Structure formats: structure tokens, C-alpha cells
Amino acid sequence: MTDAAAGWDSRWIQEVLPHRYPFLLVDRVLELEPGKRIVALKNVTVNEEFFLGHFPGHPVVPGVLLLEALAQAGGILLLHDMPDRKDKLLYFTGIERARFRRPVVPGDQVRLEIEILNLRATFCRLQAKALVDGKLAAEAILSSAMVSR
């Protein structure tokens, strides 16, 4: 297991993932165990564009964006050590047992914890959890397929 001292900040994340503002939803990687698990962070600020409409006067992170943040963290886990990652994309193929346990609001720091359940050459299933202050905010089993660009 390695820790954040490796310099896994937003610049490094952008070397691994194709996502960019306003859709890059992972700010830092804390732990990465290749082929097994990752722990990453999403810092939620009131300046997020989606808060303009979700919901005025009562901002809440949309559940689908929590799932996307989890998927992006999973993408980092799957792509970070792949030599030809610039030639690959990961597509969602399924979301199972998604549950939203508590709202995520501005000021929260979301801890994204992902574990690989099943990994094949181009297919993967991940157990994903989003926590705020150690409390479960969302969870799901995510499936993805790797394709050539």
C-alpha cells in the first residue's frame, strides 16, 4: 500500500483520467493498492455549478454525481499503471444496489473508497462507498468496460 506522499494531487489525476472541469470529481488520492483498492477525496464547495439548480437555498450534491465521483476514483485505480491509458476509455456498464444514506452538502469532504470485486481484461466490478465524517453517504456496485478510443 502506498500513501498520498506519492504526489497524487489533481494534476496527477488529470494525467490518468480524461475528465476535466467541471466534470472532474476527484481532488486527491490518499491510498492506492494496485489491483485491489483506492481511497480518494472529493472536496465539496458551494461554488460547484450544479448547486445553482440542485437545490436553490438548500444545496445537495446530486446522487448521480456521487456515483460518478466513485466511478472516477475506480477509473484511477484501473488506469493509473496502464502504459497505454491515453488510448483507453472506461464506460459504465452497470450500477447495482445503489443506496443514498445521507445528503452531501457544501463544506463536506467525501472519502471515496473503492475495492475491486472482479477484474478481467476489459471488464470490472467495483464495490464503492462514499463517506462523510466516517458516515456512509452512498454506496453501490459499479461495473465498467474498457474500450479503445
Structure notes:
By secondary structure, this protein is an alpha+beta fold. It has one domain (2-148): Thiol Ester Dehydrase, Chain A, CATH 3.10.129. The chain is 16% helix and 42% strand. The protein is built from two helices and seven strands; from the N terminus they run E-H-E-E-H-E-E-E-E. Strands 1-2-3-5-6-7-4 form a seven-stranded antiparallel β-sheet, with helices on one face. Strand 6 (123-132) and strand 7 (135-148) form a beta hairpin. The longest helix is centred in the middle third of the chain and has 17 residues, at 63-79. The N and C termini lie far apart (30 Å). The relative contact order is 0.20.
Question: What structural category characterises the helix and strand content?
Answer: alpha+beta
Secondary-structure element pattern, one letter each: EHEEHEEEE
Note the total helix count.
2
Number of DSSP strand runs? 7
Brief digest:
The chain has 149 residues and is of the alpha+beta class.
Task: Furnish the topology, listing elements before pairings.
Elements (H helix, E strand, L loop, with lengths): L1 E2 L6 H7 L11 E6 L3 E7 L19 H17 L8 E13 L8 E11 L3 E10 L2 E14 L1
Task: Using brief descriptors, characterize the structure shown.
149 residues; alpha+beta; Thiol Ester Dehydrase, Chain A; 7-stranded antiparallel sheet; 16% helix
